[in-house]
Amino acid sequence: MVEDQEEYYDYDSEYYKYDDEEKTQDSVCKDSNGNVLQDGDSVTLTQDLKVKGTSVNLKRGTLIKNIRITDNPEEIECHAEKVKNLVLKTKFLRKH
């Protein structure tokens, strides 16, 4: 008599497909025009922005140098004229 054996499924390989290409494509940081941003790039603001928590307004056309890419592809870290450790959304930026 043959005993019934439980079937074993390798769920990780069979049902879940992990593609490294999709992760890298989604995590690419792009500006408002679709240009790829990298660490150290210079960008300009496409519209006036009020900085939360301060009385500073950043004017359209302000040049921001030496940006840093964050884990979130929609945000960058930078230093502006009067504000340090500033996080900006990439939809308000244009690569210079």
From TrEMBL:
Pfam families: YjdM (PF03831). Residues 30-95 form the Protein YjdM C-terminal domain. This is PhnA protein. It comes from Haliscomenobacter hydrossis (strain ATCC 27775 / DSM 1100 / LMG 10767 / O).
